Amino acid sequence: MRARRPTIVDVAREAGVSVATVSRLINGDEKVNADYTKRIRAAIDLLGYQPDERARQLRRGRTQTLGATVRSIAEPHPVLRAVDGEARALGLSMIVMSTGDDPEREREAVMAMCRRRVDGILIEPVAESLAYLQPEIDLGLVVVAFDRPAGDVALDTVLSDNRGGIRQAFDHLTALGHRRIAYIGDDERIYTGHERAEAVRGHLRDLGESVDGMVHAGPVHTETVAAALDVLHRLPVPPTALITGNAATTLEAVRCLGTAFGSTTLVGFDDFALVDLLPAAFTVIAQDEARISETILELFRDRLARPTAPVRTVVVPTALIVRGRQEALT
Amino acid sequence: MRARRPTIVDVAREAGVSVATVSRLINGDEKVNADYTKRIRAAIDLLGYQPDERARQLRRGRTQTLGATVRSIAEPHPVLRAVDGEARALGLSMIVMSTGDDPEREREAVMAMCRRRVDGILIEPVAESLAYLQPEIDLGLVVVAFDRPAGDVALDTVLSDNRGGIRQAFDHLTALGHRRIAYIGDDERIYTGHERAEAVRGHLRDLGESVDGMVHAGPVHTETVAAALDVLHRLPVPPTALITGNAATTLEAVRCLGTAFGSTTLVGFDDFALVDLLPAAFTVIAQDEARISETILELFRDRLARPTAPVRTVVVPTALIVRGRQEALT
DNA sequence: ATGAAAGCGCTAACAG
DNA sequence: CTGTTAGCGCTTTCAT
After folding, report:
1. Nucleic chain D: which protein residues 225-284 of A have CB below 7 A from it?
2. Is the pLDDT confidence value at B74 over 90?
3. I need a surface site. Which of A160, A204, A268, B324 has the fewest CB within 10 A?
4. How far is CA B148 from CA A4, A329, B215, B294, in A?
């Protein structure tokens, strides 16, 4: 026979006070008699009482909880780490769910959070449409999108300057004398994939270079990247430099290039740990994760304070981190 | 003026039925009149009703939620990924919190989960003592430890066969003719660090080799690993092979060895993505993450079913993944 | 400063 | 099959 979980009533009885007094003490009300305070504390310890968060939240309305959806809970997520810390400092709990880049799972996760009445949701949008969130937003849910814009619903949004990052890479490479600059990256149905590929096309045109066969955007796998590299290799005028559109592409490219890698001029979008362990160092376009997470929480707080203010989109600059030999093209 | 969130009462009124009927429908009770069903569905859509999970859980008792603590939410966690999927299949939500390897944060996270009345907690123990969990366990909380044993409280536990993994590495290396086998790894205050270092010492003794200066266990940083490598290098009879105690150590070792890396016989504990991108391939002792996560959930379910059964510890074998050139020592 | 009592939104007896 | 109603454990007026 297992003991019943002690409730606030048990504590009150044990301490010989009313539940209201216990509640006050638990919630840090200063004006509880010192003697009562001691007796209540003792009762709590004796009974091993832990307030039921569900009941408190139900009664209070607010949950003091921030939900977040990310692609995968099993992969590194610097933005989230920073947000996690700052949220704790604000007295918010966080609950994280993964979407696996599946719109259906994203929706399930988001609605599950709504049913738990989280105060806000940070979302890295996967689905085309987030319209189903509108009623929740009208009811006071605060939603901040990051990494990708929401599309069909007005949301505060934090984005990296994808086009600016590509510009930095082009500036860097053209300064070294490159003009034939190729690109391999993510599917253009994904916002970041589109922005980056499109930026590359623009710069190639500005340089008066042909775009034909130079920009490869699609799902990233070993085979697709290998195929793209092969196409580039066979071009009448092959590229002298390559930009990879995200970390996964960079890794696949390094893998495919193998020993040829060291002699390729590469700039990768996204910095990541271990880059320095690869056979040769290379330059990267780094996203400013710290600033991104700060901005996310700033938008969240502002929205909480002024629910009717117009939505904002903040674009955070990227930084070019130059690594490896910087040989001018001869 | 923001609209109030609709409750089950609003839905009932709108549909012209009782709240009980709405509740029944929501909870998948089959025997609700077809006409009512239609009207209730319409009311739910019209109002944008989302049941309040806090209230349901409070009323029902069980939360159908599984909590998990991990070292970092920002780092890859294969075990968790698998558990996440299986938990969903079981109809359980998961809530994950990170400990940052800090016993204090671990305790806070665990107690926060208890206050939310999660049905179970999967814990990768950090703190020396988990005694504070005993009252919760007595109250019916199911706790499963993984990766490290709990120490002072009886818990179902899933462990990798750390000593077995080291044995596999020694078998492999001695078959190649190595006898002077060194080790660099994690602090021995951490369970896995201790097990692995101690296993290495045992095997060296069995081989009749001196252990002096061959086993380096401590915090893993670039400097400490470099220092350890330096010591090994200066030994009267330097080692011919090196075992690294975890992924972090492996990476630091690779980093420190630099170009000398290719000519070192290395076996690393833990397999990880990107190993094949390093300048030279090497053999690893891989933990069986799939089997570990299955076992975790199995223990969880069994405990839920039979709360008083004796606790079990399951040790999951490791696998040696041989990579790179396998030159016998000459 | 403390207590009594009214709910928060929901589910589960219990009647009918 | 449906409705009525008593709580789940807590916070928060409203009195005192």
Report:
1. none
2. no
3. B324
4. 30, 54, 21, 17
Q: Are strands B93-98 and B65-70 parallel, antiparallel or unpaired?
A: parallel
Name the residue facing B48 among A51, A94, A135 (closest C-beta): A135
Buried b (16+ CB within 10 A) or exposed e, B193-227: bbbbbbbbeebbeeeeeeeeebbbbbebeeebbee
- Report the Cα A131 to chain-centroid distance in Å: 20
Question: Are A76 and B80 in contact (CB < 8 Å)?
Answer: no
pLDDT tens-digit map of B217-231: 999 999 999 999 999
Distance (Å, rounded) from C-alpha A29 to C-alpha A6?
A: 22
How does residue B272 score in pLDDT terms, banded at 50, 70 and 90? confident
A19 touches strand C (CB under 7 A): yes
Residue of A78, A85, A129, A86 whose CA lies nearest to A299: A86
Residues 6+ apart with CB under 8 A from A117: A57, A63, B52, B53, B54
Residue nearest to nucleotide C6 (CA to C1'): A59
**A30: which nucleotide lies closest, measuring CA to C1'?**
C1
Q: From CA B10, how far away is CA B8, in angstroms rounded?
A: 5
Query: Measured in whole angstroms, how far is the alpha carbon of residue A278 from the centre of its chain?
Result: 25
For the residues A157-166, what does the mean pLDDT come to?
98
Q: What is the pTM of this model?
A: 0.85
> In this structure, are residues B236 and B207 in contact, taking their beta carbons and an 8 Å threshold?
no
* Short-list B164, B153, B86, CA closest to B125: B153
Name residue, tokens 């993450």: B289
With a cut of 70, say whether residue B9 has pLDDT above it: yes
* Cβ contact A57 with chain D strand, < 7 A: no
Nucleotide D6: nearest residue by CA–C1'? B59
One DSSP character per residue, B100-132 reads TT-HHHHHHHHHHHHHTT-SEEEE---SS--GG
CB contact under 8 A, B115 and A50: yes
Q: How far apart are CA A176 and CA A180, in angstroms?
A: 12
Cα dihedral A7, B55, B90, A64 in deg (nearest 10): -80
What does the pLDDT average to over B97-114?
Answer: 90
Count of Cβ atoms closer than 10 Å to residue A68 Cβ: 27
Amino acid at A303: R
> Could you tell me which residues are beta bridge partners of residue A160?
A316
Contact A80, B73 (CB under 8 A): yes
Q: Which two tokens stand for residue B5?
A: 């969130």
* Nucleotide nearest residue B117, measured CA to C1': D9
pLDDT in tens, B242-266: 999 999 899 899 888 876 666 779 9
pLDDT tens digit sequence for B78-100: 777 778 888 888 888 888 888 88
Lowest mean pLDDT among A53-62, A143-152, A278-287: A278-287
The identity of residue B168, as a single letter, is: Q
Angle between helix A8-15 and helix A19-26 axes, rounded to 10 deg: 110
